[in-house]
Amino acid sequence: MREGYRRATVRAIAADADVDVAMVYYFFGNKEGLFTAVSVAGPEHPLRQLAALLDEGPERIGSRLVRHFIGRWDQGTAFEPLVALWDTAPLLPQARDMLHSSLIGPLAKRIQEQFGVADAELRLELVASHLIGLAFARYQLKIEPLASAGADRLAATIGATIDRYLTDPLGLDGR
Questions:
Q1: Mean pLDDT, to the nearest integer, of 31-50?
Q2: What is the pLDDT averaged over residues 91-107?
Q3: HEC string for the chain
Q4: Domain 32-167 is in which class?
């Protein structure tokens, strides 16, 4: 994450982890496999956190999800994998496929059942893109007043939109 996908080497990553480079290849196959495991399958992805928060119940899920992420990002944790994924996603079809098969697909079924809505995959992609856009604008670009807005204010306003993505009719008429 520190070097970015293009500049990082498997040899340097293995050295930082104090493991033999062959072990990295054994467990992850190649650099793309390692990156995918860290950025897509890791617990930092917004959709993985959405699943964990749903275990606590669906009430005000949007506000709770936004508050959770702002809290983590304000502490400087869990943002780097999202930035790295944003930067490299066009280069890594394996990461996109893994995101869908391991996260979006199963979570979409749960969203559809829990909220009684159609288009669950689209809804989840809207949630993820909204949160990643928030992170990019607030922490990378540091756009004001968004960058200095309080967590409560953002959780209330953006959370309502996330709730709408998950529960309200999207007005797409099946398109």
A1: 71
A2: 71
A3: CCCCCCCCCHHHHHHHHCCCHHHHHHHHCCHHHHHHHHHCCCCCCHHHHHHHHHCCCCCCHHHHHHHHHHHHHHCCCCCHHHHHHHHHHHHCHHHHHHHHHHHHHHHHHHHHHHHCCCCHHHHHHHHHHHHHHHHHHHHHCCCCCHHHCCHHHHHHHHHHHHHHHHHCCCCCCCC
A4: mainly alpha
